[in-house]
Design a protein that fits this description.
By secondary structure, this protein is α+β, with helices and mostly antiparallel strands. It has two domains: 123 residues, no CATH class; 109 residues, no CATH class. Helix content is 51%, strand content 11%. The chain is built from eight helices and five strands, in the order ααααββββααααβ. It has a five-stranded antiparallel β-sheet with strand order 4-3-2-1-5.
Length: 273
């Protein structure tokens, strides 16, 4: 049993080695995503305003974005209020299911960058590589499989070397390289096993959840092709945000999603206008 487990552990480790390397490198760079964006494209991702500048109401910003690029529907919005980082808007081209990204100065309403593919910018390309290996929905499924491999590697490694504590800090330098490398592998593997397990659970959750969503929602029906806002445009979104602040004193919105799909099963639609 131990030999079989060791064999599977070794083969799965070889399979997971390349994606683990990709995830590690891209994840390390993405920690500094904001800083890299500011360095590579300051005219798009940053704003220069006075420290006392106030955000415009979100309704005015939406109107500005839609007037500048009327062929796109707003799907989601990243809100920032630090007088430095520009708001990021994710939009869908009318008549398609293709998402794009654009930037807007939330203090003046000026659109700073035209809509481009969501992986157009360098750090967004890294993000796509990190999460989906540049494979779209298929990449989410691949990521889910890899997360299961990570889970197996973490658990099987602990089982195989469960008596590691007896020689935990022992590295047999005078022995053959094969033995020394084995000691280093065990030492490193035991230390990193909690990280591998965390990667497995967190990565698995997001990738499996997205894969299930695509299968259950779009396996037999194509993505909804939006042509106009699906929400009641008479509503004041800024008013709704202000109302939430009154009920939750510490509430500060940083992300907003607008309806961009109908519910195929019941064809529910919040009437616009």
């Amino acid at each position: 049993m131990r030999k079989t487990l060791f064999k599977w552990h070794s083969w799965f480790a070889l399979v997971a080695m390349v994606p683990l390397f990709v995830i590690s490198i891209t994840g390390s760079l993405l920690v500094f995503k904001v800083e890299i964006d500011h360095l590579l494209m300051p005219e798009k991702s940053t704003v220069k305003v006075e420290p006392s500048a106030q955000r415009l109401p979100i309704d005015e910003l939406i109107e500005s974005a839609q007037n500048t690029h009327p062929g796109f529907a707003i799907g989601s919005w990243e809100l920032f209020d630090n007088q430095h980082r520009a708001d990021a808007i994710y939009v869908i081209k009318h008549g398609t299911d293709q998402w794009h990204k654009m930037y807007i100065n939330q203090y003046t309403g000026e659109v700073l960058a035209a809509p481009v593919d969501v992986s157009h910018y360098f750090t967004d390309w890294l993000l796509d590589l990190h999460y989906r290996f540049l494979l779209g929905t298929t990449g989410a499924i691949v990521g889910a499989v890899i997360s299961i491999l990570f889970l197996f590697l973490g658990i099987s490694g602990i089982v195989l070397y469960r008596n590691f504590w007896k020689n935990f800090f022992t590295l047999r330098w005078g022995k053959a390289k094969r033995i020394l490398y084995s000691d280093i592998h065990k030492f490193t593997g035991i230390i990193s096993s909690p990280i591998i397990l965390i990667l497995a659970f967190t990565g698995g959750y997001w990738n499996i959840a997205e894969s299930i969503h695509e299968v259950t929602e779009h396996a037999f029906e194509e993505h909804y092709l939006i042509e106009a806002p699906l929400h009641n445009t008479d509503l004041s979104l800024q008013g709704m945000l202000d109302d939430q602040t009154q009920h939750l004193s510490n509430f500060k919105a940083t992300y907003m999603v607008l309806p961009y799909e109908t519910w195929p099963k019941y064809h529910l639609l919040w009437p616009s206008g």
